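Illustration: Mevalonate kinase.
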Amino acid sequence: MIIETRAYARAAILGNPSDGYFGKTVSLIVKNFGAYIQLYQTPELVIEQQTEDSNQFKNIYKLRDQINLTGYHGGVPLVKAAIKKFCEFCDKQGITLPNKNFTVRYSSSIPRQVGLSGSSAIIIATLRALSEFYKVEIPKVTFPSLALAVETEELGITAGLQDRVIQVYEGLVYMDFDKDYLQQQGHGIYEPLDPALLPSLFIAYKTELGKVSGKVLNNIRSRYEKGDEFVINTLADIADLAEQGKQALLNGDHKLLHELMNENFDQRCKIMNISDSNKELVNVARACGASAKFTGSGGSIIGVYYGDEMLNCLVRDFKKIKARVIRPTVE
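Result:
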């Protein structure tokens, strides 16, 4: 029997990057793109490599381009680390796994390194496949924390819980990462919201903007840990935008949501250096009358638009800068 699992891309509506700093966020799943895992029983444990895992290149320029797109590692380290963490999770739960092996292969349609959370999708899809293969239940509320540990503890990647929460819960979720609650419970407070509350949204991205998000956020982490009051206060302000955004959604106040999303990006600019290419994405969207903020660490944006005329403006103007526009599929 072949086990097939998947996890989808995600986009933060409000609050990022405060999720890694005991903040609050609102995020939605983006089912337009996904990571897929196939797993089946075999005599030996095998992790199949994909093209991006290869160490053979046509020439030096192909090697350079591949590293620019995927970094120095492909998806195999993510799958391998997820398997290790799953095994350790079972050990802690006193679960003895049956003596059977498997072959696992992954694939992904999520654009790489543009802030749509492709890496965590591969990890979550892998954990889901292992859970099904070994008949081990991972509690939904702790699943995101396990997935996060794969990247932070095993691979040394700076990341927050937000991506993993929305990829586990799917739909639309408000998240509160209150420090005391998180440290006591091992997870945040996750409140699913009705996706029908959402206004018309678009996502635009440039694939050539790829940056490893952990590297992008490292400077903020060091400043935060050194007690930089400006960084700490700005992150708190960004977290507050998520709480206001939740109320705006519940009240059907799409105009306020529009303003809050713009404010989220403007606050982020105060504590992070934003590249000209990333600013261009935001400026093009706002010139059409839409709101715009990063979906994650940069490379793609999400915003509210109004009517087909504005959507056509977005598609036309983003095409001029070689960016693609999609309407996120949430359900």
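Reading the tokens back as a structure: The two ends are 28 Å apart (CA to CA).
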